[in-house]
Amino acid sequence: MISGLGMLISRSIGRLVPDPFVIALALTILTAILSLVFGFEGLSRSEAVDKLLDQWWSPGLWAFLKFSMQMCLILVTGYALADSHMVRRAINGLSNLPGSTGGAAVLISLCAMLTGLLNWGLGLIVGALLARRVGESLEQRGIPAHYPLLCAAGYTGLLVWHGGLSGSAPIKMTKADEVADIMPQELLQKMEIPVIPLQETLLSNLNIITNLGLLLLVPVALLLLAPRRTDKVSPIPASVTSQPVEDDQDENPGGTSQLVAAAISLLVGAALICGMIVYLAEVGFGRIGPNEIIATMLGLGMILHVSPHSYLRSIEKAARGCAGIILQFPFYAGIMAMMAGSGLLAMISGFASSQTSATTLPLFTFLSAGLVNLFVPSGGGQWGIQGPIAMEAAAHLNSQIEAAAAASGTAVDPDELVQNSRMVMAVAYGDELTNMLQPFWALPLLAITGIKARDMVGYTAMIMVLAGLWMAACLAWF
């Protein structure tokens, strides 16, 4: 029943939701139409069209160039770190530990989620490699194992990533220049968007309790979902085990030139790590942004690979996954520029704030973010579109609460106001939640494990429901 429901959902999404790039183009056209119909108050139709085109072209299309490069580097540095010989050797060692499908799913999900909290690319590849290696190990030892469940467990790193160190929303709010990269100039001129340190987002009680709960609930759920009867088990396909995982890492470079190159690589990698430590000592952990995350992952990757040639090969493999980011981000930036310049952004934010309260606005934002993620699978791209809406909606609602308190002659209780940090995490949780249905980022895992999305989505869909209830409860409570 569970698998059948998941397959039905997957087939429906596959039929109804087109390619993400097509969606980006369609959203561009839809935003332009809505902006001309409902926005540009006081302008003639020709003036509105001229202004719309100006907004879309500049700063529109080019506003996210820095942001898109940051997201690409976060992806490739995390992938390359997972692709290092040392990490692969650790995965091989772990693969022989489980003695059953349930135990294997627990181990894989914990490893995928813990590494996903460090870097989403790292968690995705570690989860995929571990799922395959464990499946092969159980098969070799003659232990019946349900391979689709193991692959579903390997994908759970994408369920927690946005609440971790590579989360686009929280790390783009730690510095004024990072905030300016995302928020439209029209919005920044109208209202002050505060800088939000990581202590209020990733290190908040809300995020810590949410992630601790997921680290407990998801493995337990996978353990309960493991088939008890051996005739219900689907082992790893022979076609998968017959094809070795690509592993061309050069762990021990030989020759004087290679040794010199390795020494230089290790020196630069160590310098990056040391620079990060000095930065932390000066500004504190709460001010870490995307650049610091990238530098850390880059340094660790260079050290673990040892050989710069090995590291370059891993980066080249990882770069294939950047096509969607490179192609789609300019259109996301253009969409946000049109919404801000036409006044559509303020209209949507005002509607959201008028229909909600300080308690329900984060929940509404969370649910809407889950829906948006099905159409805009990039977490960074989604924050670029939905982040300004969330921030302005919170500001609108807070101003209404303050005006009502002033009219009644009472003081405003700070607990009655919507915290910007909660809005950031509401978008983050909604984005990561429906990754369990959205197969866009599962493509690397599917390639490594040799499984089809329809085979595992029944399990990821059930995990999504459980995780969604927990996330919603945490947002309502904190």
Verbal overview:
- This protein has 478 residues and is mostly helical.
- It has one domain (2-236, 249-477).
- It is 73% helix and 0% strand.
- α7 runs antiparallel to α8 (147-154), α7 (120-140) packs parallel to α22 (443-449) and α17 packs parallel to α20.
- The longest helix has 30 residues, at 379-408.
- The radius of gyration is 23 Å and the shape is globular.
- The model is unreliable at 3-7 (pLDDT under 50).
Defining key terms:
478 residues; mainly alpha; 23 helices; 73% helix
Q: Topology, pairings included?
A:
Blueprint (H helix, E strand, L loop, with lengths): L1 H15 L3 H19 L6 H17 L3 H18 L2 H11 L5 H18 L1 H21 L6 H8 L13 H4 L4 H7 L2 H6 L14 H21 L12 H4 L14 H28 L6 H16 L2 H12 L3 H20 L1 H11 L5 H16 L3 H30 L11 H14 L9 H7 L3 H25 L1
Mean pLDDT value: 87
State the end-to-end CA separation: 35 Å
As a whole number of angstroms, the C-alpha radius of gyration is 23 Å
Largest sheet: none
Strand content: under 5%
Quick summary:
With 478 residues, the protein is mainly α.
